[in-house]
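pasting NarK/NasA family nitrate transporter for the record, 445 residues
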Amino acid sequence: MVLTPPGTTPELVRHRGRWLHGWNPEATDQWQTVGRAVARRNLVLSIFAEFLGFAVWALWSIVVPQLPAAGFALTADQMFWLIAVPSLVGATLRIPYTFAVPVFGGRNWTVVSALLLLVPTGALVWAVQRPDLSFGVLLGVAALAGVGGGNFASSMANISFFYPEREKGRALGLNAAGGNIGTAAVQLAVPLVIVAAAGVQLERAGLMFIPLAVLAAVLAWRLMDNVKDAATDPRTYGSAARQRHTWIISFIYIGTFGSFIGFSGAFPTLLRNEFPTMTLSIAFLGALVGSVARPMGGILADRLGGARVTIAAFAVMAAGTVCAILALRAGSFPLFFGSFLVLFLATGAGNGSVYRMIPAVFRHGAGDAADRARRAKVAAGCLGIAGAVGAVGGFLIPRGFAVSTGATGGIEAALWVIVALYGVMAATTWAVYVRRSAAFGHAVI
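structre below
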């Protein structure tokens, strides 16, 4: 059966199950008559679903500092493990989630991925009410939150099929920023929800997302579409993996996105450990600033070049980290908090600028139309690989804080290592993509 919605041209039809046949956003007539409205509807619902995915992925970042008040006896090392593992699982899931969209359909997979969020949230509700639970079981429950991290990859892959090249950057920027804001939202809402009545009711942190996940699944089922002609060739990942620039960019992206997700996860615990009298609800400002700065970083990169903006972002990140170290030595909360806000701002801008670099790097030196098309596919593969590798920073930073605390009694040593890494990443970006005598010469990357 063919369902033809009002205004649909004969070239674009929607079959049962909301499969779009003949979808081509590059076709001007189709885009102006019905395409833009279809794409916008799918984008809005995708942002909502991805927002929830990020929120669930970050859920343990704000739950962990509250566990002692709920009766859990945990060491600093164990607490950082609970923060780090969801990031590692989410990073691992990003590649298979990307392939799920062309296999199952973007609308169908959005329904599935939204319903999968019921698993980590339901498990959290069960676990946080059992203070006698073994650490191994608690760690396994925390790892389930990683399914929320995979949502980013499938959501970005899905929306990329709906928009023409000339509007794809803006759409993907909005999609990414909307998802990132989920981290800030959960860190703002959970501390308020769990103390709405007497005592700490940690199970509410999971319960609050169960109806939202169901709502996202229902809305996706009713209003989103699958693109029949969407195709992701697994060979593009193989081609991208053989390119050295894929791994250089992935290394750089650990510094930007990895810092954003790693510091977002650890920030509430750092505040509780270093300044225990301060309310945890202000931790959300860090993730919020980083999320809002992401599209601004992309805009600056369009004007100045992604590599130059990325280098500037690393310089600001290093300065912010050094100021945080000085704040710890002085015991100054305002300086510590302000330093981290600057750090988050730079990580967000760096996320946007690195994503701007990828197509520019692979487009450089392209020949005919066939060569440009091939390079675009390799760039898409690089986006997927870099997104997965970069997310590993969400595991490395909390584990670095744990090792530093265990060895020295504080996080200062880990912060100095991070400053040094920012220097290495900035130097790498300059040497490969900005230096005039490098392979890219005078090109603006």
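Strands lie at 2-3, 13-15, 19-21, 226-227.
Confidence is low (pLDDT under 50) at residues 1-10.
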